[in-house]
Design goal:
Elements lengths: L1 H6 L15 H7 L3 H18 L5 H21 L8 H22 L14 H4 L1
Helix pairs in contact: 2-3, 3-4, 4-5
Length: 125
């Protein structure tokens, strides 16, 4: 990360191997708690949808955690700290959709391999 600050050439190869999954921890340690939580919840949403090794329970936890944060954020955010209304609705729709998908995948008649092949009914049971 120091190479990016020293050279500042916007060369993507400088950060290609950087693990950004814990970036939110650095912001929280520096006192930017709201930004850190926002990034953590975005990371949780990404993991809930894309982590091929995640169990249904872990997916449900991460998506519920993120949704709860964004709902609370929407109710308490000031004018300086906000996400757009469209982003908020998209997050709610995506989280509700994943929970519904997980519930339907547990039903025997739902062809879960159509949407996420790595989350087939075989892996959800």
């Amino acid at each position: 990360m120091s190479a990016v600050l020293i050279m500042d050439k916007q060369d993507p190869s400088l950060v290609a191997d950087t693990d950004v999954s814990c970036l939110y921890l650095h912001f929280m340690e520096a006192g930017y708690h709201a930004l850190g939580m926002y990034l953590k919840c975005c990371h949780y949403l990404m993991q809930a949808f894309l982590d091929k090794g995640a169990t249904p329970e872990k997916r449900a936890f991460k998506v519920s955690y993120a949704k709860a944060f964004f709902v609370k954020w929407d109710k308490t955010a000031t004018q300086e700290q906000f996400i757009t209304n469209q982003t908020f609705r998209d997050i709610k729709c995506a989280t509700d959709g994943l929970i519904l998908y997980l519930l339907l995948s547990l039903a025997k008649d739902f062809p879960s391999a159509l949407l996420f092949p790595f989350m087939s009914a075989r892996t959800l049971r």
